[in-house]
């Protein structure tokens, strides 16, 4: 996409900010915290909106009113990771929001049990055999709703996750594309889709909506497919279009430079990122690779101590400690 077309598409940054604020709320209500975090970081990089320009709250249906008490109770259990308990109180609810949280609670319950069983298992063979026992049931139920065209953008996303976990990858790609078309602003669906795209031909064959978020996705995909020149151009276009304060974009450009072994550029960007967001742990394992390659031992040691103080059990922290 040429710069002129991109600028015209991104002309109304206030409108994009409104869309982000709306989708943050929708994701939080459904426990989709990583998607809410991504949208929140992007929204933070844009100028605040005047009070009168803030987006209205989503319409509240009769079904929402009927399920309100059960949903409020179940969400409190969900937030405390009591997934089976949340699902129990949501069973029989009829609103789209309650149905998503009901199915998502069952999915996460299965994932938690699988993780617990994996920790308890004795050897690598047994470990590899541990499965999320909820997946097949969820697939049957979601498949019926899908055939009846009763799934919204969020439940389509969950259906795609279930299919991917069952290694039904072709079906998963189709459903993720459907989820994106139904709800283009849900970054989680784009990210799940990106994990299934293996080459540029496959990427070009997908029927994706022409929405501003597609440029973020294409930049991400170019990085994943090692098309670094194209990725850097996309990110530069996004910066010039009004996203210059986005820490997400700074981190992605740093990762892109890391991937082409432009160590000095990548280091400069990671240091800039740390100034803007000193408690950030995302991508710090990549930063530590660069410090290790440059034999910057004092800086690597400082980074490791700093991350341990923030969150000693995060995967990225363990990676950084391992390089000391």
Automatic annotation (TrEMBL):
InterPro entries: APC8, TPR-like_helical_dom_sf. Residues 15-254 form the Cdc23 domain. Keywords: Repeat, TPR repeat. Pfam families: ANAPC8. Transmembrane segments: none annotated. This is Anaphase-promoting complex subunit 23. It comes from Ilyodon furcidens. The lineage of its organism: Eukaryota, Metazoa, Chordata, Craniata, Vertebrata. The gene is CDC23.
